[in-house]
Design brief:
The chain has nine helices and 18 strands. With 337 residues, the chain is of the alpha+beta class. It has two domains: 107 residues, 3-Layer(aba) Sandwich (Creatine Amidinohydrolase, Chain A, domain 1), CATH 3.40.350.10; 213 residues, Creatinase/methionine aminopeptidase superfamily (Creatine Amidinohydrolase), CATH 3.90.230.10.
Length: 337
C-alpha cells in the first residue's frame, strides 16, 4: 500500500492500482469510497465489493487493447503480490506476466521538498518528545515506562503515531540492536540506547541517542567516542555521486581503526520516507549511488555481549553538494542529561 500512497495520495489500507497506456485505475471497496474521492489524484476511481474481479477484468481489457494482435505483457510488483492472488489473476496463463522487483521504490528514493518537510516535522515531534521525557528523568524508571511516555509524547506534539516501536535498552541489554523495552529499571551507572521515530503526514523520522552515566567508565567512553567518530566520518562521505558502499566503507574503516569493527553487526544506514526502511541501503552489498534528494540514516553501532552497546543515528538529507542533518539532537556524550 505504500507505493499506492506515493503514486496517488491514498492513505487507506486496501486498494489496487492498474497503470496502462489507457490510463490509471484505482480500485477499492465501499469502506474507502469517500476517502478515495478526497485523496486519490490522477486516477479513475472504481468502487466494488469484488475488487479483484474488477482488477482481473480490467487487466484483460487493457491487454487486448494494447496487444495489437499479440499478447501484451503485464508487469507486477513481485515483492507485494501474494502467490494465491497471482494465481487468481493469471488463471494459469502467466507466460506474459513479468515480475518487477521494485518499479516504484526506485522513484521514491529521491524526495521532493514536501516529503522532506513532512519528515522534518516528524523529527521535531519525536525529538521534542524525547527532550520532555529526559527532562523528567529516566534513571530509576523502567524501560517500558520510558518508551510509553516517549511514544505518547510524540502524539501530543503532533505525530500521527510512532514510526516504529521505540527501543529503550539499558546496561548489558543495550548490546541488543533491536531490544524490546522491558520492566527492567534503568540504573544510574548504565548506558542507555534510545532508538525512536515519529510519523507525520505519512512520513517517518528515525533517530538514535546513546546516553552515558555522569561518570562513565573509560571503556564505555572509548566505545562512545569510536561510534561518534565513525558516524561523523560516514556523514562527511555523503555527497552526490558517491556509492552507498563507499559510505559504509568509511564507517567500517573508522571502527576498524578503533578496534571495534567486529562488534558492528548491521549496515551503516538506509533510506527513510513513507516506510521506515527504504532504498537505498548503505551497506557493503548496495549497488545504489547517493543522489541529490535522498534522505538516509547514518547509524553505526558497537554491541559487546555482556558489556553493552552504543548506537548513534541521524537522518541525512542529500543536497547538491553534501549531506545535511534532518534530525537535530546533539550526539555528544551525555548531551541530554
Amino acid at each position: 500500500m505504500t507505493n499506492i500512497r506515493y503514486l496517488t495520495g491514498f492513505s487507506g489500507s486496501d486498494a489496487a492500482l492498474l497503470v496502462s497506456p489507457d490510463g490509471v485505475i484505482f480500485v477499492t471497496d465501499g469502506r474507502y469510497a469517500e476517502q478515495s474521492r478526497q485523496e486519490v489524484r490522477g486516477a479513475e476511481i472504481v468502487i466494488s465489493d469484488r475488487k479483484w474481479s474488477v482488477v482481473s477484468r480490467r487487466i484483460r481489457m487493457a491487454t487486448r487493447r494494447s496487444g495489437r494482435g499479440r499478447r501484451a505483457r503485464v508487469g507486477f510488483e513481485s515483492l507485494h503480490l501474494p502467490v494465491e492472488l497471482y494465481r487468481y489473476l493469471t488463471k494459469g496463463r502467466d507466460a506474459h506476466w513479468v515480475a518487477l522487483r521494485d518499479p516504484v521504490e526506485s522513484l521514491r528514493m529521491r524526495k521532493e521538498e514536501n516529503e522532506v518537510l513532512a519528515m522534518e516535522g516528524a523529527a521535531v515531534a519525536a525529538s521534542g518528545a524525547l527532550l520532555e521525557v529526559l527532562s523528567a528523568g529516566v534513571r530509576g524508571r523502567t524501560e517500558k515506562e520510558v518508551a510509553a511516555d516517549l511514544e505518547r509524547g510524540m502524539k501530543v506534539l503532533g505525530a500521527e503515531e510512532p514510526s516504529f516501536r521505540a527501543i529503550v535498552a539499558s546496561g548489558s541489554r543495550s548490546a541488543l540492536p533491536h531490544a524490546e523495552p522491558t520492566g527492567d529499571v534503568i540504573g544510574r551507572e548504565e548506558a542507555i540506547v534510545i532508538d525512536f521515530g515519529a510519523r507525520r503526514r505519512g512520513y517517518c523520522s528515525d533517530e538514535t541517542v546513546s546516553l552515558l552515566p555522569a561518570r562513565p567508565s573509560s571503556s564505555l567512553r572509548r566505545v562512545f567516542d569510536a561510534v561518534r567518530r565513525a558516524q561523523e566520518r560516514g556523514i562527511r562521505a555523503i555527497r552526490p555521486g558517491v556509492s552507498c558502499r563507499d559510505v559504509d566503507a568509511r564507517v567500517r574503516e573508522s571502527l576498524d581503526r578503533s578496534g571495534y569493527l567486529k562488534y558492528f553487526v548491521h549496515s551503516t544506514g538506509h533510506g527513510v520516507g513513507l516506510d521506515i526502511h527504504e532504498r537505498p541501503s548503505l551497506s557493503p552489498r548496495s549497488k545504489d549511488r547517493i543522489v541529490e534528494g535522498m534522505v538516509v540514516t547514518v547509524e553505526p553501532g558497537v554491541y559487546i555481549p555482556g558489556f553493552g552497546g552504543i548506537r548513534i543515528e541521524d537522518m541525512i538529507r542529500v543536497t547538491g553538494r553534501r549531506g545535511e542533518r534532518v534530525t537535530y539532537l546533539p550526539k555528544q556524550a551525555t548531551p541530554l542529561l
